[in-house]
């Protein structure tokens, strides 16, 4: 394997790893941290519901779905730039 391919794979893996770390951090925040501070968030409201309650029943789920789509789009971009796309 040539040096250029090795470097390209290393860059691809570094970008993929960084994206995965960011996604996991966001997942952790919306899975645990937001819920730990639900009482404090309840001081504000969203759509007529206390914000802590809304984040527990709907907000986190919406964030997870959006996070999946954003992660897939960004990973496809990383793969395309590195020449590892499926197309």
Low-confidence stretches: none
Tell me which oligomeric state these chains represent: single chain
Per the principal axes of the C-alpha atoms, what is the gross shape? elongated
The amount of helix comes to: over 70%
Largest sheet: 2 strands, antiparallel
Structural class: mainly alpha
Distance between the termini: 22 Å
* Beta-strand segment tally: 2
Mean pLDDT: 91
Order of strands, main sheet, comes to 1-2
- The number of distinct structural domains comes to 1
Helix and strand run: HHEEH
What is the percentage of strand-forming residues?
under 5%
Any idea what the radius of gyration is?
Answer: 18 Å
* Tally of individual helices: 3
Question: Could you characterize what this model shows?
Answer:
This protein has one domain. It is built from three helices and two strands. The protein has helices at about 5-35, 40, 50-80; strands at about 45, 50. It has a two-stranded antiparallel ribbon with strand order 1-2. β1 (about 45) and β2 (about 50) form a beta hairpin. The model has no long low-confidence stretch (mean pLDDT about 90).
Secondary structure: elements and pairs:
Layout: H1 3-36, H2 38-41, E1 45-46, E2 49-50, H3 51-82
Antiparallel strand pairs: 1-2
Helix pairs in contact: 1-3
């Amino acid at each position: 394997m040539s040096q250029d391919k090795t470097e390209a794979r290393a860059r691809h893996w570094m970008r993929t790893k960084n994206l995965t770390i960011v996604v996991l951090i966001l997942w952790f925040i919306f899975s645990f941290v937001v819920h730990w501070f639900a009482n404090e968030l309840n001081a504000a409201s969203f759509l007529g519901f206390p914000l802590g309650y809304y984040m527990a029943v709907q907000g986190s789920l919406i964030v997870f779905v959006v996070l999946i789509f954003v992660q897939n789009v960004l990973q496809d971009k990383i793969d395309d730039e590195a020449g590892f796309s499926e197309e």
